Structure formats: structure tokens, C-alpha cells
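Q: What residues go here?
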């Protein structure tokens, strides 16, 4: 089989050196990568580096190898174009259709998915001109990743940092998996909220009531939504996974904290997917000091109180008309019958029901489930990667949003 053809566009920002790691991941995973830098990019990383790592000459202008018509051919043959880093300048040129070098010509001729990974100072990212250019590109079907928050050039800190290359690679892999026939990205212009992980209810300074959820399914939902063009808020409870690229992540610990964060984020959301394992109960009293074992005496019983039912609350009090609410049901027996009862009780639009256990689902890279809908339909999802289940969920959400 032919290797997927990827064009890696590199524009002139200090983060250009990090694109070498993205290039390495793409080539080592079996992609045929052609690097197309701008003239400015070569001030940061030289042509020899790009050529050596990719196995192809890295040229900036349309005047080289003219007999091959590179300004048309490279874009026509690509399965994916990713611009990383994408400066404010390249975003402006792409949004306005300028074509003054090989990279901008390639962007105009590409008929495949296009991903931009911006990196710039916070003021440049937040400037109205940049935001309008980003909105234009997204409206046309391009995936423009939200930059990360962190240390920038010099002593500055803020939004505009180049996302981690490994996370950009995972996003590119998801975009490639969907293929060009799915263009344009079907969640462009949508804001979705996803909860992930498992809440922990503290008993004393060293102990808590928790569960086995790793957060992997929720993170797969967030990554997949970004690849489909959505603006994503991820409310993550006690997950050790790295923040997905292009996602606004809110870290929480307890069920009450999760409820507050989800309700706030859901105020302007088109869809809310509650994939987190939220504790049903919490200790009625928190011990300020460690509860110690006392010889010859049985421990005092732990009194529990109910936590708010976040899924039922979201379903009953939709923050906006047409908002789609999705729940998850982790069951150990009578999976479908319990799931149907929960769907009726929670009154959500979709309920993803799966069987869980010590060696099932939790912490695994795979999942299998049945998605129950309020209209009575049932969609089985066979055992496979959690990303496949995520895509099915977003397919069903998209139908209801339409």
C-alpha cells in the first residue's frame, strides 16, 4: 500500500524546531512527509535538517524543479497538509488566499484536510484580525488548533504556546483516519463539553472514595471532536493523561467541583457528553486529621450522603434550546436492561452503555458499547479502539444537532 502523503508546512516562528519532533513521529509511523518551509522558517531550522529527516528536498519557492510544477502537484497529491507552527502571518495569507511562496500555493491547491497549529505571542493570537482569520479558516473546513497556555519566547507566559508535538501527531492521525471524504469538518462552529476521568471524594487528608476510571474514553471523545472541527472544553477529574491538543481543559477533583465546571461550560455548549465516572456518594464528614487505627476497637462506620446527579440536572435544565446531552452507564450485570432504565430516568438524548469490571474497559485502549437513544434506537459499537466509539457518539450527536 502507498504511504499516506503528508505535507508539513513550517512557517517562521521560534517553535519551528519543535516541528522536527512532529516530522519524526510522522515518518516513523509510516507516512511519506514532504516539508515545505517558508523562507523565514529557514532562519530557525535549516534546509539540510528538513531534507535529511524527511528524505525529500525542502524548498520554499515555486521556481525550483519547475518541470514538476510543485506549486500545484504537492497540494494535489497530499492526503493531509499540516502547518506547524502556523504564525499569524501564514494564517492571514491562508485566510485571504495569498500565494507568494510554495507553502501558500500548496494551501490553495490542496483538496485534502488541512490542519494549522498556531504559535505566537498572546497579544497576536487574541488580536481581532487573527481571530477573524481563524474563524474564516474554520468556516471553510480547516482544523485550527487552539494554542497551548504556557511559557512563550523570553519571559512571557500566556496562550499562544506551540502544542506538544505528540498531541499534534495524534490529532493528525485522527484527521487522516477520517479521510478527505468527510470534509468539511462536521463539527465546525460547535462548542462541545466533555467530562472525563473519575471523581474522588476525600475522607481524610490521605484517603478518598474513588473509582477505576482512567479518563481515556473522555479524552478520546475530546480529541476526536477537535479533529472534526469543534471547540472543546474538557472537564477532567483526576486523570494523569496529557492535556489533548487544542482543548480547553478544566481540572477538577470532586463531584461537586465537576458539577460546577460542567454547568458553567455548558452555558453556551451545543452538546455535553458526560463520560466521567462521577461518584454517587461522598463522606458526610471530612476528618481534618488522618483517621487512625485503634487497637481492640472496630472503626466507626463511614456515613455517606448523595452527590448531585449532574447528568439528570443537565438533561432537565438545558442551557440552550437544542442542546444534546449524552450520558455514560458503566454496568456490571443486566447491562442493557439497566441501561434502558437509566436512560428513562436521566432523560438524556443518548446513553452509552458498556460492561465494566476490573479487567474490562477501565484503563484499556479499547471499548465496546451500545448507544441507546431517547427515540428507542440502539447502536451497537463492536470491540475496538475508544476513538471508534468516540466517532460513533459524535456521528449520533451531529444527527441530532442537524
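A:
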Amino acid at each position: 500500500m502507498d504511504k499516506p502523503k503528508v505535507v508539513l508546512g513550517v512557517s517562521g516562528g521560534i517553535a519551528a524546531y519543535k516541528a522536527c519532533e512532529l516530522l519524526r513521529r510522522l515518518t516513523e509511523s509510516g507516512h511519506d512527509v514532504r516539508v515545505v518551509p517558508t523562507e523565514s522558517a529557514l532562519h530557525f531550522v535549516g534546509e539540510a535538517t528538513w531534507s535529511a529527516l524527511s528524505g525529500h528536498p525542502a524548498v520554499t519557492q515555486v521556481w525550483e524543479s519547475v518541470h514538476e510544477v510543485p506549486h500545484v502537484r504537492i497540494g494535489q497529491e497530499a492526503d493531509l497538509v499540516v502547518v506547524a507552527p502556523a504564525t499569524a502571518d501564514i494564517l492571514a495569507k491562508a485566510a485571504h488566499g495569498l500565494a507568494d511562496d510554495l507553502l501558500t500555493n500548496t494551501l490553495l491547491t490542496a483538496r485534502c484536510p488541512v490542519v494549522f497549529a498556531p504559535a505566537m505571542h498572546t497579544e497576536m493570537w487574541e488580536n481581532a484580525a487573527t481571530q477573524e482569520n481563524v474563524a474564516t479558516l474554520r468556516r471553510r473546513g480547516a482544523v485550527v488548533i487552539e494554542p497551548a497556555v504556557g511559557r512563550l519566547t523570553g519571559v512571557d507566559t500566556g496562550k499562544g504556546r506551540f502544542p506538544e508535538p505528540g498531541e499534534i501527531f495524534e490529532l493528525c492521525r485522527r484527521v487522516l483516519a477520517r479521510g478527505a471524504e468527510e470534509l468539511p469538518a462536521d463539527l465546525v462552529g460547535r462548542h462541545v463539553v466533555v467530562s472525563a476521568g473519575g471523581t474522588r471524594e476525600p475522607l481524610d487528608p490521605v484517603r478518598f472514595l474513588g473509582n477505576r476510571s482512567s479518563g481515556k474514553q473522555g479524552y478520546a471523545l475530546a480529541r476526536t471532536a477537535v479533529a472534526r472541527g469543534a471547540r472543546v472544553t474538557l472537564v477532567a477529574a483526576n486523570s494523569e493523561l496529557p492535556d489533548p491538543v487544542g482543548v480547553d481543559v478544566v481540572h477538577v477533583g470532586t463531584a461537586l467541583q465537576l458539577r460546577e465546571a460542567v454547568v458553567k461550560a455548558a452555558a453556551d455548549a451545543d452538546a455535553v457528553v458526560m463520560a466521567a465516572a462521577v461518584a454517587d456518594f461522598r463522606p458526610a464528614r471530612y476528618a481534618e486529621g488522618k483517621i487512625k487505627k485503634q487497637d481492640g476497637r472496630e472503626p466507626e462506620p463511614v456515613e455517606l450522603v448523595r452527590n448531585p446527579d449532574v447528568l439528570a440536572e443537565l438533561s432537565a435544565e438545558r442551557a440552550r434550546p437544542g442542546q444534546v446531552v449524552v450520558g455514560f452507564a458503566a454496568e456490571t450485570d443486566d447491562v442493557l436492561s439497566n441501561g434502558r432504565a437509566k436512560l428513562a430516568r436521566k432523560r438524556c438524548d443518548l446513553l452509552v452503555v458498556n460492561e465494566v469490571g476490573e479487567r474490562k474497559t477501565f484503563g484499556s485502549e479499547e471499548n465496546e458499547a451500545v448507544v441507546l437513544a431517547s427515540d428507542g434506537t440502539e447502536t451497537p459499537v463492536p470491540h475496538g479502539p475508544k476513538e471508534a466509539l468516540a466517532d460513533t457518539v459524535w456521528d449520533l450527536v451531529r444527527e441530532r444537532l442537524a
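A: Context that may help when evaluating the design: The chain has 13 helices and 19 strands. The radius of gyration is 24 Å.
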